[in-house]
Design a protein that fits this description.
Carbamate kinase, five-stranded mixed sheet, alpha/beta, 17 strands, eight-stranded mixed sheet, 14 helices, 2 domains, globular
């Protein structure tokens, strides 16, 4: 397996990679990491970074001990640390002419379909603008009930909604071992996991660092999410300089291979939705366009039935009222009622606000 086959790569870096045990920022490491990203970008890879470290950097700035922080205080510290984190990335990445942007997500942003579609579009637009999204959990408003709980799970959800090919979890261990390598000398690195249930059933490793919140269990949970999304996952040691190059050169890591195809995963995600909320009847021209892989535009819609919101699951019927596709609507039924049969460039004038031109985007549609 190689990263060279991946078009979209999500890389998660833990706080222990940015801040050492003495609470010093590991600038030399971050510079080497930026070089790796520059190299990936030169090969036309789209890269998303999921970075921990806001609370660690906030604690460093305020001279607090993370272990003693209560939730409401940690939210404030995250708010202070988030600026430190982005300043750090901005300072280093700008030296390599790498543009960065910030995305803060809460659990609902990826779990609720409508919001996850919005997030997906934001990532796509940032790629078009040649910016690298740097993602973190929005710790300033997250409570224990609405948290991902760790950035491994957040990273796997980001990989899922962006249709990433590979998720790289940079950790402080080389990968998944047969036993805990920090305790047992005879622990062996498992290089490939082809079947998540069979290959790891006898393994239970828990590990925690001062700044990190995710042990091996959270990484296995992330692997399960990736597996269902048609995305491969790597657990690798990020403590090396040029950690991505290290993976490519030595392959001293654990690959979790997904057997699910991307298309199949997406189809399952759309079709397995609860019963569709409404229907659109479209003309023959629109049907032909859809069968040729195009998105559904307002001009081709003849009738809308049912009440639904933006992001809801709907049926698409042809002129003979025969269902031939399903998808996620970019508009509510009320909006479609106003714009159906109209040209896309008229939508803003009719609705009175800027919105998308596709009623159902091709990526959010599945032929039955």
């Amino acid at each position: 397996m190689h990263l060279k086959n991946s078009k979209i790569i999500v890389i998660k870096i833990g706080s222990s990679l940015l801040v050492d045990e003495k609470k010093k920022i590991r600038k030399k490491w971050l510079i080497s990491f930026a070089k790796d990203i520059k190299k990936l970008k030169s090969k036309n890879k789209k890269v998303i970074i999921v970075s921990s470290g806001a609370i660690a950097l906030g604690c460093k700035k305020m001279n607090y001990n993370k272990a003693n922080l209560k939730l409401e205080k940690s939210q404030a510290i995250a708010s202070i640390g988030q600026i430190e984190l982005m300043n750090l990335f901005s300072e280093i990445f700008s030296k390599f002419k790498l543009n960065i942007s910030q995305i803060l997500l809460t659990l609902d942003d990826t779990e609720e379909r409508r919001r996850s579609i919005n997030a997906k579009r934001t990532f796509e637009n940032l790629f078009q603008l040649d910016y690298i999204p740097i993602v973190n959990e929005n710790d300033t408003i997250a409570t224990s009930e609405i948290k991902y709980g760790d950035n491994d799970r957040l990273a796997s959800r980001v990989a899922q909604i962006t249709n990433a090919d590979t998720l790289v979890l940079l950790s402080d261990v080389d990968g998944l071992f047969t036993k805990n390598p920090k305790i047992f000398k005879d622990a062996k690195l498992i290089k490939r996991v082809n079947n998540l249930i069979k290959d790891i059933k006898d393994i239970n490793i828990k590990g925690i660092t001062e700044f990190g919140s995710g042990g091996m269990n959270t990484k296995i949970e992330a692997a399960k999410i990736c597996n269902l999304s048609g995305c491969n996952m790597i657990i690798a040691n990020g403590l090396y300089l040029n950690p991505i190059n290290e993976i490519e050169r030595n392959d001293n890591c654990t690959w979790f291979i997904s057997k699910t195809s991307k298309l199949h995963a997406r189809k399952k995600w759309i079709i397995s939705s609860v019963s569709p909320k409404g229907e659109l009847i479209i003309d023959d021209g629109a049907k032909k366009a859809l069968l040729n892989g195009k998105s559904l535009l307002a001009a081709g819609i003849k009738k809308v039935s049912g009440k639904f919101n933006k992001g809801d699951h709907i049926k698409i019927l042809d002129n003979k009222k025969k269902e031939f596709a399903r998808g996620l609507s970019s508009f509510s039924s009320r909006e479609i009622d106003k714009i159906m049969g109209c040209h896309s460039n008229e939508i803003q004038k009719i609705l009175g606000y800027v919105s998308k031109s596709e009623v159902v985007h091709k990526d959010d549609m599945v032929e039955i």
